[in-house]
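Inputs:
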Amino acid sequence: MKQDHPTTILALVGKGGVGKTSLSALLVKLLSEQYPDKKILAIDADPAVGLATALGVDVSSTVDDIRKSFVQTVEAGNNNAAIELLGEAKYQMFDALVELGDNISFLAIGRPESAGCYCKVNAYLKEVISMIADHFDYVVIDGEAGIEQVNRRVMEKVTHLVLVSDASKKGLSVVQTIEQVARELVMFDKAGLIVNRMPDLSLSDMLDTGDLELLALIPDDREMVLSDMSGASVFELPEEAPVVKGAKEALQNLGI
Ligand SMILES: Nc1ncnc2c1ncn2[C@@H]1O[C@H](COP(=O)(O)OP(=O)(O)O)[C@@H](O)[C@H]1O
Ligand SMILES: [Mg+2]
């Protein structure tokens, strides 16, 4: 069933290793608790894969698997079947969703073997997002590191662009570039910045955040490190962990 109201779509972007995946998983967890009657879709758009682990789900079939079976049918010259497959793609996407708890669904882009494939799967992912997003109330997209998916307009219909950085100059410059490009391509309603893994919160004056709205400053969190070491999901993090509190604050500041 389609929703009779617009879907809220959050995309987490930024350079590698800054906490996009951890924070995506936490936002999914928080949304699911805050809105038990709403439907939430978590999309792992990073071929490096990680959101499944952070959420504690097992991935069976990915967007890339579905794309491959489609391409194989077309290459086998079975055009009628291909047309049927195209119509079926949407149902296959729904089949590929992994259910988690009462109100979370999970979908992974998968890991294509070659770079050429990856560009194609990005195009496919864009279609997938536009096909299934409006069946959910909230969609959280854990983006690939860097600016490629923004450039390719994979995240075209995002309502909230969540820029994630660590305290580094490089990280902050990457999110500022992403925001500028996304703004030129008119891809979001609201954008904001989370600075994560701050070694020392008292250094926050030194951060050059440009014109970006600061949603949350999150310290380097020992609970997160421990959770990572044991391979636990974000559902096992204590409520009072700074990283959980920070994600909550970011959500509030986004007005969600
Ligand atoms: N606030 C934090 N404190 C400590 N470690 C963190 C924090 N946020 C993320 N991490 C850790 O940093 C590493 C990279 O995080 P991850 O979410 O995978 O980043 P990304 O998806 O941007 O590459 C992981 O090992 C994760 O557990
Ligand atoms: Mg990641």
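The longest strand covers residues 190-198. Flag for discussion at group meeting.
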